[in-house]
Structure formats: structure tokens, C-alpha cells
Design goal:
The two termini are 16 Å apart. Strands 1, 2, 3, 4, 5 and 6 form a six-stranded antiparallel β-sheet that branches. The protein has a single domain, classed as Jelly Rolls (Sandwich). Strand 3 and strand 4 form a beta hairpin. It contains no helices and six strands. With 79 residues, the protein is mainly β. The radius of gyration is 12 Å and the shape is globular.
């Protein structure tokens, strides 16, 4: 699980990974693109990103996303 703060206008570049991802909008407003489908999400909204789906985000307002991954994102761990 990771918590990421975005400034207005910040971009999460399109990418994919083998993990299932659930994103929860703690605050703010985001435009999310998942496999060419664009959605606008606000505080309290959530979305599921399937395995290997190309996805990215743009902060339409300052905000925070909480992302949960399965399986564990070992690349996010620090030693």
C-alpha cells in the first residue's frame, strides 16, 4: 500500500505492471486513464486497475491517492 500526494497538474505517466491495483482518492480530483478509458475521480472514489493494463493519472486539483497492490510491489520496498 502506498500513499502519494500530487500537486495540481502533476502527472503519473502511463505505465503497466503485473500487479492488480486498487486506487482510492483520499482527496482532490484526478483524471485516470485505464486501457484508453478516461474517468474523473473525486475524494471517496476508487478504481480497480487490472493486471498489465496501461494506466496513468493527472491531478486536476491537489490531492492524495492511496494505491493497494497484489501481489506485493517488492520494487517499492526499502532495505
Amino acid at each position: 500500500m502506498v500513499k502519494i500526494a500530487f500537486e495540481k497538474g502533476a502527472v503519473g505517466e502511463p505505465h503497466s505492471h503485473p500487479h492488480i491495483q486498487c486506487s482510492y482518492v483520499e482527496s482532490g480530483e484526478f483524471e485516470l486513464t485505464i486501457a484508453s478509458e478516461v474517468r474523473t475521480l473525486n475524494a471517496g472514489d476508487s478504481v480497480l486497475v487490472p493486471t498489465n493494463a496501461m494506466h496513468g493519472a493527472q491531478a486536476l486539483a491537489e490531492g492524495v491517492l492511496i494505491d493497494v497492490f497484489t501481489p506485493l510491489r517488492e520494487d517499492f520496498l526499502t532495505s
